[in-house]
Amino acid sequence: MRRLLVVNPLGTDYHDAETVELLAGQLPADVTVTVDSLRDGVPATAFLPLPSTSYNQLIGRVIAAEREGFDAVVIACASDPTLATVKPLVGIPVTAPMEAALHTAAALGGRLGIVAPRMRSGENEKQPQTANWVRELVQQYGMWHRVATIRSAAVVRPSDAEVERLFAEDPEKLRVLVRDGMAAAAAGPGLDHARAAVEHDEATVLFFACTTWGGLLGPVRDAVSVRVLDPVVDTVRFAALLAGAGLRRPSLTPPTLS
């Protein structure tokens, strides 16, 4: 049995049940998935918190996952936060959506067309204003030869006042509202970028670079002739593959002192 941990790097768990539902029935029978989020010391924000408030806790959660007996960890954010830092600290595979997408495209023998979200950032949040973070990650991974194009699609988000009110009073309604905005972006400007990536840039695989787009890419799949990776499901499948390959190695993390 392969045990995977998916970590939503937020100080709130309001996406966790959505992730569990999205993964249901999508993995081999011998794979079990636990979905968790960050709480202790991380501010509860509706969107991705500032790195300075979450990175230490995220690294600690991955290290703890190894001690808890998990066989692999997925960091569920397409900016792959802390991934390069934490990999050498544990003996189990750790991956995240951008890394998984690039290597999946390579395994399929293709070139990846990437569509990133572009969204206004609120207080204590880290939302992307451009797609340059994608370019920096691709450069870090040395994978430009597998990238056909990188584009960004604008996402409309609720006003700061509405986000604050709903996050306090009705987080489920806010979650649905945010998902609706992401779905509209995928089916609108995102779809235009997807078509252009395939028709003009010769992409043979598409990746929408935000885990909130997980489960929302049906309109894109219906409109293009190439593989469209789900940023949640296909990342966890990639992690399951790594977990099943017996890739454990000695951990560099010091043992816990009793």
From TrEMBL:
**InterPro entries for the chain:** Asp/Glu/hydantoin_racemase, Hydantoin_racemase-like, Iso_Racemase_Enz_sf
Specify the protein name. Aspartate/glutamate racemase family protein
Question: What superkingdom heads the lineage?
Answer: Bacteria
Similarity remark: Belongs to the HyuE racemase family.
By its UniProt entry, which Pfam families does this protein fall under? Asp_Glu_race (PF01177)
